[in-house]
Amino acid sequence: MNAWSITTSAASRAFTRLRLPINGRHWVMATNPAVSLPNSTRIREALAKCPLVIVSDCVAETDMMTFAHVKLPALAWGEKDGAVTNSERCVSRQRATLPPAGEAWSDWSIIAGVATRMGHRDAFAWRNSAGVFREYARLTAYENSYRLLDLSSLVSMTNAEYDAFAPDQWSLRTRSGTPRLSTDGVFPRPDSRARMVAVRPKSPAEPTSGQPEFKHTPARIYGYRETWAGFY
């Protein structure tokens, strides 16, 4: 399978590491890094220096939109047709409850439109969200000998099967799904063995009085904020 030259190295963390190049071009979709990432002040400073910032969003005025040179109207949650995965690996169909407003497009349609104008029509020739899902399923199965995220049983599903898909949990190497992982004693590592990691408790950065206190746990700590569901 030709997976359009996907990198095999660790994913870039440009926003999180605050290494946005001043001469970079950035397209932001389905997120609001100007307010949602740690060190948002540094993020805003970096975005302000970018010569081209493109933002796809369903809301005209957001923190991120203030930095946008190009604004692309996207669909809101209730207008989207696709699939979602929640934090316990359950994949389910999401069907639109409202028609798109104005000139708004789905995210995949926007990506395909830009790719077509860049000369890559054949590589992004999706006709509907089912086509996008089938490609995603193929990618999860590509060179996959032990990764848990495997939707290979869904690669050849028809449009009708996709529309009628009932919620199920991956791994989905078969259509039966996997409600509980590693019940066979095989773990998702090259040697199939579990990896046990001992941790040490970390004391609070500021000393406490020992009396009952109000504690605030923010979600802007790197490594602990990536818990939202995925939509494709």
Can you describe this structure?
The chain is built from 5 helices and 7 strands. The chain is α/β, with parallel strands linked by helices and 232 residues long. It has a domain at 81-99 and 128-190. The radius of gyration is 21 Å and the shape is globular. The two termini are 20 Å apart. Mean pLDDT is 84; it is low at 227-232.
Could you give a short description of this structure?
With 232 residues, the chain is of the alpha/beta class.
| Strand percentage | 5-15%
Counting DSSP H or I runs of 4 or more residues, the number of helices is 5
Please tell me how large the radius of gyration is. 21 Å
Which segments are poorly predicted (pLDDT under 50) over 5 or more consecutive residues?
Answer: 227-232
Task: Specify the biggest β-sheet.
Answer: 4 strands, antiparallel
**What percent of residues adopt helix (DSSP H or I)?**
10-25%
Shape: globular
Average per-residue pLDDT, rounded, comes to 84
Structural class call reads: alpha/beta
Order of helices and strands: EHHEEEEHHHEE
Using DSSP, what is the number of strands?
Answer: 7
Strand order of the largest sheet: 6-5-4-7
How far is it from the N-terminal to the C-terminal residue, by CA?
A: 20 Å
Keywords:
single chain; 232 residues; alpha/beta; 4-stranded antiparallel sheet; 3-stranded parallel sheet; 5 helices; globular; disordered C terminus
Structural topology:
Elements: E1 25-29, H1 33-36, H2 40-49, E2 52-57, E3 70-73, E4 82-85, E5 90-94, H3 107-117, H4 129-141, H5 159-163, E6 168-169, E7 230-231
